[in-house]
Amino acid sequence: MENKKQNCWEFKKCGRGPDEKLDGQSPPCPAAIEKRLDRVHGGNNSGRSCWVVAGTYCGGITQGTHASKYDVCKKCDFFQLVKEEEGNKFQRPLFLLSKLKNPSRTIDVSHKKFGVIIGGSGLIGGALMHYFKNLQSEEIEILSPNSKKLSLREPEDIKRYFSKYRPDFIINAAIAAIDSDEQLAFETNYLGSINLAKVAMALKIPYIHFSSAATLPSGKNITEDQVLDLSSNLSNYAKSKLMTEKTLKHLHETKGLDYTIIKLGVVYGKHDHKIQGFHRLLFTIANQAMPFILSSRGVMHSYTNTKKTPPFVHYITEHREEFSGETYHFVDHNPIELSQLVLTIKSYMELSIPKEIYVSYPLAKFGINCLKYLVKGLNRVGIEARLPPEMMFMKNFYKSQTLSVEKLHRSSYGNPDPETTIFTRLPALIEYYIDRWEHLNLVSSYNVDFFDPQKQTDKFSNDPVRLLDAIHNEDIDMFTDFEELRE
Q1: Looking at the structure, do residues 48 and 151 belong to the same domain, yes or no?
Q2: How far apart are CA 385 and CA 354, in angstroms?
Q3: Residue 444 region, left (φ>0) first, then alpha (ψ -120 to 50), else beta?
Q4: How wide is the angle at C-alpha 60 spanned by C-alphas 58 and 66, nearest 5°?
Q5: The whole model's pTM is what?
Q6: Angle (deg, nearest 10), helices 123-133 and 309-318
Q7: How many other C-beta atoms can be found within 10 angstroms of the C-beta atom of residue 78?
Q8: 56 - beta bridge partners?
Q9: What pLDDT sits at residue 249?
Q10: Considering 32, 67, 100, which residue would you say is the last residue of a domain?
């Protein structure tokens, strides 16, 4: 009968195994609880690969990193024993380190939950990443693989990734661009999303999926069940998102998939690295490329605040019985009139355009068609040009679409932060994006006094000596006082 292979704490009799406390207070050794090397060389956790685990308690003192301790470990009698017992099956230290030096390196699966966010570099995904990484009281860790590590268009990527990481929940905030062709929209928005749902079914974990108001008809106070009819006339984006919603519901009803769909309106928030959606509107006005208003009076839309979204996602991951198999609109309580939003931006930025002249839809459509022909002509002569993808939804500029939030308000989550709207956030959004776009030379410079009332930028450019003296003499208070960090 083969003898059971010993772990380091059994061989050394250090008293710091997974269930041991040397003096009734000291915690287990890191090697005893590091599970990413579980079963390597036949050991429990990292019990037979302790030489690559940082902070182990060897020889009565805490050891440092692998690099600083490996020379000592090579001389250890336990290391020599494992190397002899394993023979040609002994795994090289660099290979073992590669299992530790990956995005899950901070995850202690012995007591922490962790989730995977797909699309973590986008506006919604980025807000989720920021929220979960800054949680103070919750034991949750988040991974967010980029498209090189996990492409939704490659089922093998998905299988390989989730064979290595087995999360407690999956959040899908990824989308193909709204003007993507048929293949990209179908493979990313539909096939990729459903393959993630299949993973969630296999792992028996919740799947949180972000969808869009593009799957809803025009009208006011649209409820969650008033979706568009699936047809070939829909845009590739709307078609793929609607197919995903229907398949998720089908998998829930036939296979028991635990899912929740969160349907968003027009999204707004900081840290959008692309110019899209509401930020495209803001950019167009800031760049003074909208001489007149491309809408009609009274056209209303629903808006989604990125900062409000993560707490809701967190809440529904903790309350699956109530939210499983459900779709929720997640938008601000009150819809906004598009023309009022445009004129408010114009007023705040002290611009002369757009003029309060409303261009009719037929005239706007004619103008867009003319621009399309111009763009085609420029492309033929080697000048790269394209219309903003939002132009494909220009008809929506002339039709109201407001989403009902009654279902969300009836839920145990209630009405989150009803006072915050796009109007309350507008000053901060304008200052953030105009400053960013100016630095990138995407828009013309604005009135410096408006964005820099103390004219520090001008002093920095033309008289840095006087500016520095003023700072040192405390005539100007430029810095934040981090008093709360003092003990």
Answers
A1: no
A2: 24
A3: beta
A4: 30
A5: 0.69
A6: 60
A7: 20
A8: none
A9: 93
A10: 100
Report the 10 Å Cβ neighbour count for 108: 15
Contacts of residue 97, Cβ cutoff 8 Å, sequence gap at least 6: 52, 66
Task: Provide the 8-state DSSP code for 414.
Answer: -
Backbone angles phi, psi at 217, to 5 degrees: -75, 170
Domain hosting residue 83, numbered range:
8-100
- The verdict on 163 and 300 lying in the same domain is yes
pLDDT at 103: 42
Q: Indicate whether 392 and 465 sit together in one domain.
A: no
Does some domain include residue 391?
Answer: yes
Residue 373 domain-assigned (yes or no) = yes
Same structural domain, 136 and 224: yes
Each residue's pLDDT tens digit, 139-155: 778 888 887 888 888 88
Low-confidence ranges of the chain (pLDDT < 50): 1, 64, 103-111, 447-450, 453
Q: What value does the CA radius of gyration of the chain take, rounded to a whole number of Å?
A: 28
| Of the candidates 202, 289, 213, the residue with the CA atom closest to the CA atom of residue 251 | 202
Considering the domain architecture, whether residues 47 and 189 belong to the same structural domain is answered as no
Residues 43 and 133 in one domain: no
Instruction: Give the integer Cα–Cα distance in Å for 327 and 403.
Output: 12
Same domain, 140 and 74: no
Rounded CA separation 255/201 (Å) = 8
57 located within any domain: yes
